[in-house]
Amino acid sequence: MTKIAVFGLGAMGYGVASSILRAGHTTYGFDVVAEQMARFREEGGAEGAIIDVTPELDAAVVVVLNAAQTESVLFGEAGLVPHLRKGAVVLACATVPPDFARRMERQCAQLGVHYLDAPISGGAGKAALGQLSVMASGTADAFSAAKPVLDAVAETVFALGDTAGAGSAMKAVNQLLAGVHIATMAEALTFGMTQGVTPDKFVEVISKCAGTSWMLENRAPHIVDGDYTPLSSVNIWPKDLGIVLDIAKSAQFSAPITAAALQQFIAAAGMGLGAEDDAAVAKVYARNAQLTLPGEEGA
After folding, report:
1. Nearest CA to 219 among 203, 205, 240?
2. Is pLDDT of 299 > 70?
3. Catalytic pick among 171, 201, 239, 283
4. Distance CA 126, CA 70 (A)
5. Which of 43, 60, 144, 289 sits in a 20 to 30 Å window from 127, CA-based?
6. CB within 8 A of 236, min separation 6: which ones?
7. Largest Cα–Cα distance in the chain?
């Protein structure tokens, strides 16, 4: 049995923590939302304050929103890394720039703590089932120390290199495609509506045709149901696609399709949709074309 703490109990983090707990480890869950911590403890999560349990941890899994939150958890005013025992491992799962991941690895190493650059993909459903894909990079010792966590949460672990940064670079590639696919799905679905193709018929047909994608099959049903409960929110994409474009700029690489998708998510956030599911980007197209999406007939 290993002592593991998960920092960030959002849609992905809660599933990660639940999968680790189900694997038989002593599992702590921490979040800024007290109700999430209480819920996790009710389901079997271990009791204890961060300051008390940190020195006993074998692994800390950081599943927060961005680089700033990751750094705050690790090295902020109440940062955990200075209090971790030597040989413990940090698994950093947020989408961050590769240079940031490399800096975190160096700072952890100075204190004798392993750092695994470990962005995750698969959505909240696969997180809850322990079937995530992990794009990981770090030292052999970091991988070894992280193995109990990886075994519990991942269906596939891609070992991408022996230093941090490579995992985050691959996640940026994934996020480019994922963000573009969501925006393109919304464009195609609403374009179809202008031609008399209903959203439910769009999903039925296109999901069986060459134009489909995992994102289309996962997100388009949210539009059909008129349910924008945030499993992955609109607000994630200005950050993630912004990271992609920052990396592209540093590489002197033009990414015009990414830039176009980013503008649609920025427009959605500007409409007040930032906290809704990212499928709500379809509302940008619907507004511009004066279309009525399912669930909005009486709005």
Report:
1. 203
2. no
3. 171
4. 22
5. 144
6. 65, 278
7. 63
Is 171 considered catalytic here?
A: yes
Phi-psi region of 250 (alpha: psi -120 to 50; beta: other; left: phi over 0): alpha
CB atoms within 10 A of CB 105: 24
Beta-carbon count within 10 A of 229 CB: 10
Q: Which residue has the tokens 């304050």?
A: 49
Q: Which residue from 194, 138, 200, 182 is spatially nearest to 279, judged by alpha carbons?
A: 182
Residue 51 CB-density burial (10 A; 0-12 exposed, 13-18 middle, 19+ buried)? exposed
Q: Identify whether the C-beta of residue 175 lies closer than 8 Å to the C-beta of residue 135.
A: no
pLDDT tens digits, residue range 247-262? 999 999 999 999 999 9
Planar angle of CA 70, 71, 74, nearest 5 degrees: 90
Using the Cα atoms of residue 228, residue 231, residue 232 and residue 235 in order, give the sign of their dihedral: positive
Predicted confidence at residue 298, as pLDDT, reads 67
Bridging pattern class, strands 59-62 and 114-117: unpaired
Residue 290's φ and ψ, nearest 5 degrees, are: 55, 50
